[in-house]
Amino acid sequence: QVQLVESGGGLVQAGGSLRLSCAASGRTFSTYSMGWFRQAPGKERELVAAISWSGDSTYYADSVKGRFTISRDNAKNTMYLQMNSLKPEDTAVYYCAGSYYCGTYYYSDQCYRDWGQGTQVTVSS
Fold this sequence. Notes:
By secondary structure, the chain is an all-beta fold.
């Protein structure tokens, strides 16, 4: 029911930063859990970070803790992923995802139902 569009990907050197954005449209943004997934070639898609509908609670994969920050601006129907200290292993297609049905399980990779098309992030050594 919600359309998601990612932007902000690109090529960056190791140690650099990028900020991804995800714009949601199509219906109300209220009670909508959101998260960022990524998938590298030959690897399974993984949940990188997630945020509750209110923005009061967040989840991070161990591999990105301390480097990535997820946030959302409900007034703009937009979610962000600030990525600092990027590493080559962060290279992947990053997908925005959302769901009205995650509830308190916003950190679950099984609850998400809406998906963006993905944006490529490439980190060079």
